[in-house]
Amino acid sequence: MQTMYQTMNDVELAAAIDDLEARVAEVKARELKLDMARGKPSPEQVAISRPMLDLLSADSDLTDGGVDCSNYGCFEGIPSARALAGEFLGVDPSQTLVLGSSSLLIEHDSVAMCWLKGTCGHAPWSEFSAAHDGARVKFLCPAPGYDRHFGITEDLGIENVPVRMTENGPDMDEVERLVAADEGIKGIWCVPKYSNPTGDTYSDETVRRLTSMKTAAPDFRIFWDNAYCVHDLYDEGDELLNVFDAAREAGNEDRVIAFASTSKITFPGAGVGFVAASPVVIKEIAHHLQAGLISADKLNQLRHVRFLPDLDAVRAHMRRHAEFMRPRFECVDAKLHEGLDGTGCATWTHPRGGYFVSFDGPEGSAKRVGALCREMGVTLTPAGATWPYGEDPHDTNIRIAPSYPSVEDLSSALEVLVLAVKLVSAQLALEERA
Amino acid sequence: MQTMYQTMNDVELAAAIDDLEARVAEVKARELKLDMARGKPSPEQVAISRPMLDLLSADSDLTDGGVDCSNYGCFEGIPSARALAGEFLGVDPSQTLVLGSSSLLIEHDSVAMCWLKGTCGHAPWSEFSAAHDGARVKFLCPAPGYDRHFGITEDLGIENVPVRMTENGPDMDEVERLVAADEGIKGIWCVPKYSNPTGDTYSDETVRRLTSMKTAAPDFRIFWDNAYCVHDLYDEGDELLNVFDAAREAGNEDRVIAFASTSKITFPGAGVGFVAASPVVIKEIAHHLQAGLISADKLNQLRHVRFLPDLDAVRAHMRRHAEFMRPRFECVDAKLHEGLDGTGCATWTHPRGGYFVSFDGPEGSAKRVGALCREMGVTLTPAGATWPYGEDPHDTNIRIAPSYPSVEDLSSALEVLVLAVKLVSAQLALEERA
Questions:
Q1: Is residue A434 over pLDDT 90?
Q2: Rounded-to-integer distance, Cα A152 and Cα B83, Å
Q3: I need a labelling partner for B6 at 20 to 30 A (CA). Which of A273, B90, B311, B416 fits?
Q4: Taking the domain B64-309, which CATH number applies?
Q5: What tens digit of pLDDT does each residue of A205-218 get?
Q6: Contacts with A, B 85-124, CB within 8 Å
Q7: Pairing state between β A159-166 and B67-68
Q8: Which chain A residues have a beta carbon less than 8 Å from that of B73?
Q9: Which of A46, A53, A297 has the CB atom closest to B58's CB atom?
Q10: From the record, what ranges are coiled-coil (chains A, B) (predicted)?
Q11: In this complex, which of A38, A155, A299 lies closest to B270 when CB atoms are compared?
């Protein structure tokens, strides 16, 4: 598709650039300081969880199902929290572990387990290369995707291989072709519901194909980070197929390791993280983690289950979160339509949940748009961050994080983004002619 | 030294065994159920920290030094908690990280960092073997020592090498000889104050020799788990030299990685863990951990610093803990004296702090004493647990954990232990004659 700037004649284009540059200069003079980089809720939104802090006090009963939450023990997590984790992730509570505040850490340690020790009797992934003429262990990374996932595998020396993210999840034709052909591909990173950053949810067909596809690696694992499983903006949320049911039906029960946390439900960074897997694999993970952990913070687990005793309570709480998030997402969509409709300069996603909007400008524009926004006082997630190694092959993608600023600030920031996209698009059109 | 049973004639010995067996039968009939296995405080002792749970409520200020503790960010820990960690570990706060509830996990991840990535520009420890004709990476393990430390290195495939623990710390002649000769020895596990399980504290000379000794490995690391740094039983506690000062004076600042936590100060398993190291090494550790962690639970950090704002507050709180611990330690000592003085059957330590008493019976007795105690309804830490791979070479050592039972139950449990030690000693004397 052509941008409106590409269709202008030279005189029109020069005039358009002059006009846009003048508007950029005006914005710079306003010395804005706005942030759309951070996937974190606003202080007002976080505050809705403050009543949780009143639920444990000096004279509280600190037991749960007979477990003393104030002393060592119960490595696997307290009974009520495992029941909640089972509801979150769609498995029996016995297939869950409830741990500390960071699901990212559990993800890291689960990959590290496979790397250092192997899984289900297979050789450690760290030994694959030496046994296969230096071939590297690889992970599929649906892109645009979550930079911290890609960081975990990169950190362990695993090669990140981007695959195209679609409205229905990763491009499954590509995924199936790759995993069938290469025994070195040991896993895939997935944010299956309201994916980071596109906000798209995997279709039932995608879930079935992921869990049933033939993989050259017998120890292929799906790292299923269901971070936004209850983060609907509307009463009618996206529906995600139960991945464990699908995997079991396909005879690949051990293939899935799933994660979630309450970080964006109660307090970011001070929530409770969960992991779920098949009975065999969850036992492996527990054994691996027990080398470094006597038991996690059970008082915080207790505080959480007293605040959110079941999934119904969680959903009621999430409806309150949605009241903060919905106007922000709607502001993003409205401002982008208002500023960019008919320009041919951009496409963006229309999530019904999660934390992000994925925005694509013309080829070669994203880094320049980010830099220009920064000059105008608006911070965006660094361009490229949504791709493995920070390398967006077409330099188009920008992750918009609307949750933190006020709607007013967000509105101003989006006007800046629109202006930057237009100027960079116009400049690109001019440079093409040179 | 001979036991009294070895000095008896055959008739006397047979009579003694008859008498002891009759007493064992009487105890079994009582169907006791007592536990001296667990290094955890009693529920009454834990309860002294309950007022901490009142300090954060729905209307609290949730900031510390300008940091919003209720949202993501501040990976390194909140300012007040880093100040406290600096006091605990004897370094500038900038050389600390305050993380989640488990210092054991930080220890695990610090060793894992060296294993996977190396430290200070040296090759990863995991590559040592291939580069040195299959020679293994080894760790020195002062024994008797802490089984979970040994478990971390064992888990990573590192070879644990026991070195003799003395009243002044590890046998430094042996340590110096070993580390000077073997480049594969990459570290040593230390619990320098009120060591687990002997309760002994490293002498100044030991600290100086550890930090100044010549090591064949240029990347040798001391893992300094100062778990009991404030856990004095008496107002006059043992004094431990500042290991970072000693290391700096010796020009080996990067050699030390130190740990502590509030697990046995506030709530076991729900405290706050710290790590400290040289500026260079703490930066490495932070970088390594950031692959798997956005930020730790800062609300729990805030709750802790509001309860224990500085080391004076910690010491006042620890004096209250000592009121629970002191009578238990004194009961252990009194009952062992009462039951075993003059028998030649045992020696034990006399800690002035920490959580354990280390007990040694005759050679070849510990496993049998443990089994016999179990038959009489008393659970001890499994014999051998205090040695790498659970292999106590002389099968003499038993770790006594007096903190959990009431003084009354503890007294009964020690009578059982004394009886078991006597019967096993008598049986061993008889078997020698066969």
A1: no
A2: 30
A3: B416
A4: 3.40.640.10
A5: 999 999 999 999 99
A6: 100-102, 104-105, 107-109, 112, 116
A7: unpaired
A8: 40, 269
A9: A53
A10: none
A11: A299
